[in-house]
Amino acid sequence: PDAKTIRELFIKFERTGSVDDNRVRNVGPRQTVINPENVVKVSGIVQQNPRNTVRRIASQSGLKCSSTQKILRNSLRMFPYKIQSHQAIPIKAVRQRFDFANEILSMIDNEGFDVGCIWFTDEAHFHLNGFMNKQN
């Protein structure tokens, strides 16, 4: 350590009796951008067009992207999502599922069917119309 650092620690020790770092709560820059006015501004922009990107919201509000993202995540509790693509379920399949569910319910009620014997799995989604990159 530098001589100045040692001297300041010694002066602090004589003054307070300790060399502990008392800046625990005041360390780092203050959050001045995340205030109620900016939260209301960002919230209004999102309500006008919920499909806006963080960059577009930041440019419209005059804030940095990182500040806008902090407001969206921490203050407004809005989180980004990945694009999901699902197959449309035909009416016939919905009826078959409904009939199957009713049949299983009646079997459980009447015959004492053991529900632990059934394995349900996730459905697979296959796309025949091209490749979709969900990571970007």
Tell me what you see in this structure.
With 136 residues, this protein is mainly alpha-helical. The protein is 49% helix and 0% strand. Helix 2 crosses helix 3 (54-61), helix 2 (36-48) crosses helix 4 (65-75) and helix 3 (54-61) packs across helix 4. It is elongated. It starts with a helix and ends in a 25-residue tail after the last helix. The model has no long low-confidence stretch (mean pLDDT 83).
Q: Tell me the distance between the termini.
A: 47 Å
Q: How large is the count of helical segments?
A: 5
User: How many individual β-strands?
Assistant: 0
The averaged pLDDT comes out at 83
Helix content: 40-55%
- Could you say which overall geometry the principal axes of the C-alpha atoms support? elongated
* Sheet having the most strands: none
Order of helices and strands: HHHHH
Question: Could you say which structural class the secondary elements and strand pairing correspond to?
Answer: mainly alpha
Instruction: Give the C-alpha Rg.
Output: 29 Å
Low-confidence stretches: none
> What proportion of the residues form beta strands (DSSP E)?
under 5%
Brief description of this entry?
This protein has 136 residues and is mostly helical. It has a domain at 3-75.
